[in-house]
Specification:
mainly alpha, 75% helix, 241 residues, 2 strands
């Protein structure tokens, strides 16, 4: 904070101005936040050719300080604009990268889920076919319905289950069905667990983000030089006036 003695030419003689300055200093000393060493209070006033004054007028120095402060503020604001544009573009790019990773993760999860679902369904189908062949449909009818080639292919897939089926006693075959059923249920549950999806952006959201990124990089960021040139042009015009 800086202090200035305005209308210094109307304060009377030099002694009067000294008394005014002393009163101001006494008031400032009562306030700890404003009391500091190296206190300076330039005298400023608007010159009047009809009323000459011997008081020192430091208004030119004050105007120069104000102009320097404005220049520095404008430059800092423009630099902040450029940094903010870069930060916005970086955040948008990170958001798009996260969306790509989420899409890849969802694709892998969907593939795993489909695989485990198919394993569970395959187990139930093999178990059901084995039950039909062993207990409901005879081999002759099975060959007649499906044909020799298809029947041989199905029986080749059923050989592991059929071998286990014949090694188990009839009293324990119900437990075998139960274990196979539980294994299929496990595959279904595991498929549901592995197929969880992460939230992703819609096409409209991704298009909006890309448009915002393009606007920030190609328009807002490039606006810095234009604004600075306009400010310099305005400053030069004011000096000419």
């Amino acid at each position: 904070m800086r202090f200035y003695l305005s209308k210094a030419d109307e304060a009377g003689h030099e002694g009067d101005r000294q008394r005014v300055l002393m009163q101001i200093v006494q008031e400032l000393c009562k306030r700890p936040g404003l009391n500091r060493t190296g206190f300076d209070m330039p005298t400023i006033y608007i010159p009047n050719s009809n009323k000459p004054s011997r008081c020192m007028n430091q208004i030119e120095e004050v105007c120069s300080d104000i102009e320097k402060t404005i220049n520095q503020t404008v430059q800092n604001t423009l630099n902040t604009l450029e940094k903010d544009c870069e930060n916005i573009a970086t955040l948008i790019q990170e958001k798009l990268e996260q969306d790509r990773e989420a899409c890849s993760y969802n694709l892998r999860s969907w593939t795993k889920g489909i695989l485990f679902y198919m394993l569970g369904i395959l187990l139930l189908m093999l178990l059901g076919l084995n039950f039909l062949i062993e207990n409901v449909i005879s081999h002759d009818i099975f060959h007649y319905l499906l044909g020799d080639h298809v029947c041989e292919a199905v029986l080749s897939y059923l050989q592991p289950i059929n071998r286990i089926w014949h090694e188990i006693s009839s009293a324990h075959r119900v437990y075998f069905y139960f274990v196979i059923f539980l294994l299929a249920v496990f595959f279904f549950m595991f498929a549901k667990f592995t197929s969880r999806r992460q939230p992703t952006l819609s096409r409209r959201q991704k298009r909006q983000l890309l448009e915002n990124k393009d606007y920030v990089q190609n328009y807002s960021k490039g606006k810095k030089q234009t604004l600075y040139k306009e400010y310099l042009h305005q400053s030069v015009a004011e000096h000419d006036l």
